[in-house]
Design a protein that fits this description.
The chain is built from two helices and five strands. It is an alpha+beta fold. The chain has a single domain, classed as 2-Layer Sandwich (YaeB-like fold). A hairpin with a 2-residue loop joins β3 and β4. The protein is globular and about 35 Å long.
């Protein structure tokens, strides 16, 4: 089951601020979401976020010190936000 991954412009902008090594590491992790975006596995620490009422289900992908927040709609994975783990989560 293959999914298409799309990034929000804010996520692309954040990636542009990172050094090449970190950016490539995050991009490689995001590409893993094409295979199965909802199941945690080696090299893909995925967790479904709780407490999101009235909104679509969101997931968190942990990539070192960074977090990737995304939603799955059918065969499309929408990466909505990428941030440093120290910033925390906001809804």
């Amino acid at each position: 089951m293959s999914h298409e991954v799309r990034l929000h412009p804010d996520a692309v902008k954040f990636l542009g601020t990172l050094d090449d090594r970190t950016k490539n590491h995050i991009i490689a992790a995001i590409r893993q979401l094409e295979q199965d975006p909802s199941r945690s596995r080696p090299k893909a620490d995925i967790k479904k976020l709780k407490g999101i009422k009235g909104r679509q289900d969101l997931f968190r992908l942990r990539v070192g010190d960074y977090r990737v927040i995304y939603a799955v709609e059918g065969k499309v994975v929408w990466v909505t936000e990428i941030f440093s783990r120290g910033r925390g989560y906001r809804v």
